[in-house]
Design a protein that fits this description.
The complex is a heterodimer of chains A (115) and B (110). Helices cover 0% and strands 49% of the residues of chain A. Chain A has 115 residues and is mostly beta strands. In chain A, the strands form two sheets. In chain A, strands 2, 4, 5, 6, 9, 10 and 11 form a seven-stranded mixed β-sheet that branches. Chain A has a four-stranded antiparallel β-sheet with strand order 1-3-8-7, with no helix packed on it. Chain B is mainly beta. Chain B contains no helices and eleven strands. Classes of the chains: A mainly beta (115), B mainly beta (110).
Chain lengths: 115, 110
């Protein structure tokens, strides 16, 4: 079954703690993306990666970090520097890294809550 | 001015009617346009993509693009209660990054 998986579905973070959200895809897609969604707001791009071992900051990268050691995996770490991390985090992927017509497909999301 | 604008709604239509969802964008160089449906608490799923001026039909859905006026719309014919969701418009900028609108909430009542 091809698709994008995210885990965990819910994640609780304590003050000062770093937490890591998992994103895995078996679609053989080159590009992967992390978005954040807050109530009443659109999706905002945190980081994206077009190829293994390379990634770029999106519009709201502060307080987050990523790695892309494998084509299939693009984990996101929410660091203690992110002061307002409560949000719905969505991972997406697309087949090719370039091309304006590339369609992005989304995983099921992780809801992060602060204790 | 927001890069991609949508009316937040809710847009309420009776079952069987046509629902019309609109989206405007600011970057004239935008090349690709996407409509995603998002049920409450779930992730977005792709409904339609459109790249050329005019209409594109897929089942009960029709996407309409007018680059001169910088708007894209989604028509849903024979609306069903199961169509009740938030519809996100997304536009691909020349920098190849998708920009999302805040979404329009559609309510279809029996």
């Amino acid at each position: 079954d091809g698709g994008i998986t995210q885990s965990p579905k819910y994640l609780f973070r304590k003050e000062g703690q770093n937490v890591t959200l998992s994103c895995e895809q078996n679609l053989n897609h080159d590009a992967m993306y992390w978005y954040r969604q807050d109530p009443g707001q659109g999706l905002r791009l945190i980081y994206y990666s077009q190829i293994v071992n390379d990634f770029q900051k999106g519009d709201i990268a502060e307080g987050y970090s990523v790695s892309r050691e494998k084509k299939e995996s693009f984990p996101l770490t929410v660091t203690s520097a992110q002061k307002n991390p409560t949000a719905f985090y969505l991972c997406a992927s697309s087949m090719l890294p370039q091309g304006p017509q590339e369609t992005q497909y989304f995983g099921p999301g992780t809801r992060l809550l602060v204790l | 001015q927001k890069e991609v604008e949508q009316n937040s709604g809710p847009l309420s239509v009776p079952e069987g009617a046509i629902a019309s969802l609109n989206c405007t964008y600011s970057d004239r160089g935008s090349q690709s346009f996407f409509w995603y449906r998002q049920y409450s608490g779930k992730s977005p799923e792709l409904i339609m993509s459109i790249y050329s001026n005019g209409d594109k039909e897929d089942g009960r859905f029709t996407a309409q693009l007018n680059k001169a006026s910088q708007y894209v719309s989604l028509l849903i014919r024979d609306s069903q209660p199961s169509d009740s969701a938030t519809y996100l418009c997304a536009v691909n900028r020349v920098t190849d990054k998708l920009i999302f609108g805040t979404g329009t909430r559609l309510q279809v009542f029996p």
